[in-house]
Write a structure and sequence with these properties.
The structure holds two protein chains of two kinds. Chain A is built from three helices and two strands. Chain A is mainly alpha-helical. Classes of the chains: A mainly alpha, B alpha/beta.
């Protein structure tokens, strides 16, 4: 293994990636998410959001309380799509029975 | 090497044969596939998405992506949340020819200083198209299932007075307090067995967890197990929490919501902190307490700030079980060594030999579901991450009668979370009785 400090194991985002991102001027947590892809894997940020936000506070000089979380969206955990197929408000096509 | 300790007959359930990576293993019905794999010497389960670094479980709680495997032809299932059953077949993902020996692991060395996909081969449009083709072949998680779902399950509904999300010490205590008051209570827990950190903490253990689960059931609490809250939909019938149970989606309506989701175990930043064998201290405790499996003979506890009592309890339990334990402050760890599995941690004073690293970091509040309900959270690194803000009674800032207790409001530990759950549960009872 090449020497890396991994903050997001789902998407292989390293501390160096976050530093690179901040260096390029992306300081908002949503920008960092979009630039690096952290928090977009199967864990959806469970393991990486707090460590990345904490590092971002350090690197950007902001107080932790000034760093908001990124928006959380359903599904919050990996979900088999078959569970959703019969939801009453699921979108139906006209030729569905 | 990990090994099963001699524990009472039957505690693991019946012996079954399962197959992992085309190798037959002896496992037990009460073990998860991840626990059985480790106890049998299977170490690397899959490869990471980008650099194809070796991956295995880290959290053992179904929250990280370390143990995603293909099981009986279905991709991306969590080995730590799938119980062993006779004839089950698990295979690694994202690797060629195998997770242990993956040729694409070369990507890690080719891009040893990192890979910015925004600027990867963007100077020439021809090269860029080629790069995109290659990357699309290489990336993605697993392959499609062999078969479509045989049947599409009907959707379940629950309408209760109070829905408690999380069946650890805080959630069990809150649900029991609510049930004792005669309210209809649904407790949603996402683990193989309810009990949360009680089942990973040597000071408590499975018997204490079973007792507290029994207490909740005795006052009429319904426990929905292996079920995860996947989203809140405020515009749907006055607010619906969607729960993914193993074979069914359940739509929950409730007069009050109590978030008791605890905290996610997280890693700490040191070089090669993702090496297989570096796992959460709570996972090491869970293996020992819940499964009777000693994760390693020489365990190095990478100790974060403010976790001395947890590290102490784990260290003495591991030592009683026959392991040598060394506690190293995480500030002293500069890296890890090993070919695949960890063999040592690097410190300024030299190498500390080990065959398992237990990372004791402050768990990160599992607050994303509460956030969807409109609860305010604030980043507090000492509390583990984004903690849910409550008033003194445990009520959050959400207008929907939403409460929170235990580690999701900032890390406080196992017993203190139970006390908090009991207290907040009582306050919810009072609020519901007052018609609030």
């Amino acid at each position: 293994m090449a020497r890396k400090i991994v903050l997001c194991r789902c998407e292989d985002v390293t501390l160096a990636d976050i530093e690179h991102c901040v260096h390029r001027g992306y300081l908002d947590i949503e920008e960092v998410k979009r630039y690096t892809g952290f928090g977009t894997g199967p864990c959806q940020g469970k393991e990486c959001l707090a460590p990345v936000a904490t590092q971002l506070a350090k690197l950007s000089g902001k107080t932790p309380a000034a760093i908001p979380p990124f928006t959380s969206r359903p599904p919050l955990a990996p979900t088999p799509i078959k569970l959703l197929a019969n939801a009453p408000d699921a979108h139906r096509f006209e030729d569905d029975t | 090497m990990a090994r099963r300790l001699p524990i009472s007959d039957g505690a693991r359930g019946d012996a079954v044969e399962i197959r992992i990576a085309e190798t037959a293993l002896r496992a037990f019905e009460r073990e998860s596939i991840a626990a059985a794999a480790l106890a049998s010497g299977t170490r690397v389960l899959s490869r990471s998405l980008k650099y194809h670094r070796p991956r295995t479980f880290f959290c053992l709680e179904g929250h990280c992506s370390g143990c995603l495997v293909r099981i009986d032809g279905v991709p991306n299932l969590r080995a730590c949340q799938t119980p062993c059953a006779a004839g089950i077949e698990a295979a690694g993902q994202n690797a060629f020819p195998s997770a242990e020996h993956d040729l694409f692991g070369a990507v890690d060395f080719l891009f040893s200083r990192g890979l910015d996909h925004h600027t990867l081969m963007t100077r020439s449009s021809v090269l860029n198209k080629l790069a995109n083709k290659v990357v699309r072949q290489l990336s993605g998680l697993g392959k499609l299932p062999e078969h479509a779902a045989h049947e599409l399950p009907a959707v379940g509904e629950r309408d209760v007075d109070a829905c408690v999300i999380g069946g650890g010490p805080a959630g069990l205590a809150a649900a029991t307090a609510l049930g004792r008051a005669g309210l209809r209570v649904l407790l949603v827990d996402d683990q193989l067995r309810a009990g949360g950190s009680l089942r990973a903490d040597p000071r408590f253990g499975s018997n204490v967890a079973e007792q507290r689960v029994a207490n909740a059931l005795a006052v009429g609490v319904e426990i929905l197990g292996r079920a995860t809250a996947i989203g809140y939909f405020p515009e749907d019938d006055g607010g619906v929490l969607a729960i993914a149970a193993p074979e069914q989606l359940v739509r929950v309506h409730a007069r009050a919501w109590v978030w008791a989701t605890g905290g996610y175990v997280v890693n700490l930043p040191f070089a090669d902190n993702d090496r297989p064998g570096v796992i959460a201290a709570r996972a090491v405790g869970r293996l020992l307490v819940e499964h009777g499996i000693l994760g390693g003979d020489k365990v190095c506890i990478a100790e974060g700030p403010n976790l001395a009592s947890e590290a102490e309890a784990l260290a003495s339990a591991l030592e009683r079980a026959g392991a040598a334990v060394e506690r190293v402050p995480v500030a002293d760890i500069t890296g890890t060594r090993g070919r695949g599995w960890v063999t040592a941690v690097e410190t300024p004073g030299g190498l500390v030999d080990c065959d398992l690293v237990a990372v004791a970091a402050t768990p990160s509040p599992a607050s994303e579901g509460a956030r969807q309900m409109g609860c305010k959270v604030v980043l507090d690194p000492d509390a583990g991450g984004f903690k849910v803000v409550t008033d003194a009674s445990g009520r959050t800032t959400s207008p929907n009668n939403v409460w929170a207790c235990g580690d999701v409001t900032g890390y406080r530990g196992t017993e203190s979370s139970a006390v908090d759950g009991e207290r907040v549960g009582g306050n919810v009872v009072a609020a519901l009785a007052g018609g609030v």
